[in-house]
UniProtKB/TrEMBL annotation:
<keyword id="KW-0472">Membrane</keyword>
<dbReference type="GO" id="GO:0005886">
    <property type="term" value="C:plasma membrane"/>
</dbReference>
<keyword id="KW-1003">Cell membrane</keyword>
<keyword id="KW-1133">Transmembrane helix</keyword>
<dbReference type="InterPro" id="IPR052053">
    <property type="entry name" value="IM_YidH-like"/>
</dbReference>
<protein>
    <submittedName>
        <fullName>Putative membrane protein</fullName>
    </submittedName>
</protein>
<dbReference type="Pfam" id="PF02656">
    <property type="entry name" value="DUF202"/>
</dbReference>
<feature type="domain" description="DUF202">
    <location>
        <begin position="24"/>
        <end position="91"/>
    </location>
</feature>
<feature type="transmembrane region" description="Helical">
    <location>
        <begin position="103"/>
        <end position="123"/>
    </location>
</feature>
<feature type="transmembrane region" description="Helical">
    <location>
        <begin position="33"/>
        <end position="53"/>
    </location>
</feature>
<keyword id="KW-0812">Transmembrane</keyword>
<dbReference type="InterPro" id="IPR003807">
    <property type="entry name" value="DUF202"/>
</dbReference>
<feature type="transmembrane region" description="Helical">
    <location>
        <begin position="65"/>
        <end position="82"/>
    </location>
</feature>
């Protein structure tokens, strides 16, 4: 694991494998990385907003649980982004198939489930008159 993390911070190691690719592929990979970082930052901002601005919800500590879940998910997305960028760049340089990942599907399901839970909380509050 530490070897993988070390590679993230050592561009010389990445450039030492394979051949220099068409720069357009590397730039596209970088744009994808930045898009994932924006997603992580949006989740972190949503977590902070939930902690600061959501009113108390029907279930005790639900607001805090939502905030913590969003913050953890945002941090996970950011770390996953750099790992995905490095693995993809390595595959491009080696002329290999791009690495497959279940993470986008897991992230989509987590966000969808979180949205459904929030809808339930809002409806409970609206129907309960709270």
């Amino acid at each position: 694991m530490w070897e993988t993390v070390r590679r993230w911070f050592d561009p010389r190691e990445l450039r030492s494998v394979g051949q220099t690719p068409d720069y357009r592929f590397s730039l596209a990979n970088e744009r994808t990385f930045l898009a994932w970082l924006r997603t992580g930052l949006a989740l972190v901002a949503g977590g902070l907003a939930a902690a600061q601005f959501l009113p108390p919800l029907p279930l005790r500590h639900l607001r805090e649980a939502i905030a913590i879940a969003l913050l953890l998910l945002g941090g996970t997305v950011a770390v996953r982004a750099v790992d995905r960028w490095a693995r993809t760049e390595r595959a491009i340089r080696l002329g290999e198939e791009l690495p497959a990942s279940r993470f986008p599907a897991v992230l989509a399901l987590a966000v969808g489930l979180g949205a459904l839970l929030l809808v339930a909380a809002v409806l409970d509050r609206a129907v309960g008159g709270g």
